[in-house]
Amino acid sequence: MIRTLHRWPGLLALALVTILSLSGAALSVFPAVERITAPQVETGLTVATLAERIQVVYPGVEQIRRSPSGRITAYWFDQGAPGAAVIDPATGAGVASADPNQALRWLTNFHRSLFLGDGGRIAMAAGAAAMLVLSLSGAMLVVRRAGGWRHWFASLRGPFTGRLHVEIARIAVIGLVLSSTTALWMTASTFDLLPDGGVLPADPTEVSGEIGFALDQMATLLQTPVAELRELSFPYPGDATDVFTLKTDRGTGYLDQGTGALVAWADLTGWERVSETIYMLHTGQGAAMLGLVLGMMALGVPAMGVTGVLIWLAGRRGRPRIRGNQPAGRAETIILVGSEGGSTWGFAATLHAALTAAGQGVHVGPMSGFAPERYARAERIIVLAATYGDGAAPASAKGLLDRMNASAPAPDIPMALLGFGDRSFPSYCAFAKAVAAAAQAKGWAELMPLDTIDRQSPQDFARWGRALGEVLGISLELSHQPVSPRTETLTLVSRRNYGAEMQAGAAILRFALPRATPWQRLTGTGFARFQAGDLIGVLPQGSPMPRLYSLASGRRDGFVEIVVRKHPGGLASGQLTALEPGDTVRAFLRRNPGFHAGRGLTPLILIGAGTGIGPLAGFIRGNARHRPVHLFFGMRHADSDFFYGEEMPGWQAEGRLTRLVTAVSRGARRSYVQDALRADAAQVARLICDGARVMVCGGRDMATGVSDALAEILAPAGLTPAVLKAEGRYVEDVY
């Protein structure tokens, strides 16, 4: 609901809110310029003294005004001709023209009404209402993505476009809420939808009938500082019944021109003060710096509009059309999908097509539409559940858990759960696990145990599909072909071979850095911006499914580098390890912000085995600030599998690598990297207790062994890998 409330007003009112924001940002500059250029009043100057100075220079003065910026303007008649000027309060003389700024007038009319009168005012009010809805719903979405209000400024993960959208939003949202709310108030006031609230003093019934009392002798004017003045109007020349009208920040009063006495006064009402405060907050008049800040925040609206449209388009592309989708009441297999960005729907479409080809009647729908009473012919329910943010339900799964918990006992329909997530996140597949726990609590029959898919791996999905086929008694091959980003050609410039003696061919492959287009440099897409720990997807010949490899280099290194081991029957690894300098591959970049070293100086404990050394070596190579880095590296054979062994001494000498500990699993004294951790338990525990961050890269079995070892090492200190993950101090990139 919140996402819908955010999406459609944004798409429908994009042009209008962009006009409002850009014109408002331009208008915010004028109060600041006026404040800087206007001659300012000396401290302690009274209205009496100011009026006397101006009257000496302009004997025919009829009105003195002070704007919220402090600018003094006088209006007079000289031999029947009107005149006006910006006044220097120190002399009472004019220093600049008082003619209205035409650019300001044009922008104001454009901002308020698009030059269309009342119809334009209503349209711009609708734009302000849309901006308010967008701001509030966007704030709720940011909170949901971040995992709560206390994580409002937490680091973000995900595609660049989405991160940029949220980064701008969480900075600008307060200003946008303030601007849109005050705009709606002012519009309502314009159309007399709010009470006026103003009270003028009663007209004086008796005056002295005299004229010519000296301005610098009037007590009220002597007691009123110029800083409180808004307007002083002089009586009509020769009319002894007319009075001075004084308007200040406190109220309005009338002064007898013959005696200088205050004959009537009315304080500003509470409603007037509220209205004036709202006007100040919206325009910046009287608060120039605030106006500039709000104007800068308003500039974020066009950027959020563009990124929002891109996010919407990406979501539409990520949700494919499912042909032959059966009604829920007639389907034998119900597939429920929980997806945030839309990618999980692609897996659902692949599963739907395979089951349909096997003769099944299949219905695919969102998890939010969960309704067991509608599944009259269902023999099984398969749930594909992604996790959003800090373990929250994705957009298409809202309300599922509530309905499951509130429902009657589970029907006799077995359920299979498949979670989609990223192992580098602390809350890996947390929502899928929550659904599994709720289903178990309700006594739902289990078709298959809960399984997970890491980083949308087609290989993991195919493995799970074969297991599902065995349960169903059918042959089920799930060949998922995700829509890959646009690829670029990488040319191999060098390679270093390892493992040849052990018939386990491996290599460090270095590719030339592709030339980035101006658009890529601006948006950070393609290979224009990347770090060690990010991923490249390689499209092998003969397969549409990309293989992902962790990068051992960053953009600043000037090359693209990966570590690859040839696997038996491995299509991509076989082709990559066969490359020679000058050969090319097609590849794309995928961000992996959850596995970046970061810019801090807290110590790093890097743990890897085999080709998992790739990103860890990249972190060490890029450690120009000499951050303490402790590397635990496991290999099969020291003679043939010591990746980056040639560079390690140099990195240590340069201060990029503090300490290196190796473990050899097939040597005379067999040891794994988790054994090396246990052997160095005291120092590992001390480093972690002092704030060190742990980064693990390699195979899943290795990662499990490392986690178990660290659990033992940290137990006396009351810490666990789970606690470290929740704190962001334990991250994994496993395969």
UniProtKB/TrEMBL annotation:
Residues 485-598 form the FAD-binding FR-type domain. One of its GO terms (molecular function) is FMN binding. This is NADPH--hemoprotein reductase. Keywords: Flavoprotein, FMN, Membrane, Transmembrane, Transmembrane helix. InterPro entries: FAD-bd_FR_type (IPR017927), Flavodoxin/NO_synth (IPR008254), Flavoprot_Pyr_Nucl_cyt_Rdtase (IPR001709), Flavoprotein-like_sf (IPR029039), FNR_nucleotide-bd (IPR039261), OxRdtase_FAD/NAD-bd (IPR001433), PepSY-ass_TM (IPR005625), Riboflavin_synthase-like_b-brl (IPR017938). The chain crosses the membrane at residues 122-143, 287-313. Its EC number is 1.6.2.4. Residues 333-469 form the Flavodoxin-like domain. GO terms for cellular component: cytosol. It comes from Pseudooceanicola nanhaiensis. It comes from the Bacteria. It is an enzyme of class 1 (oxidoreductase).
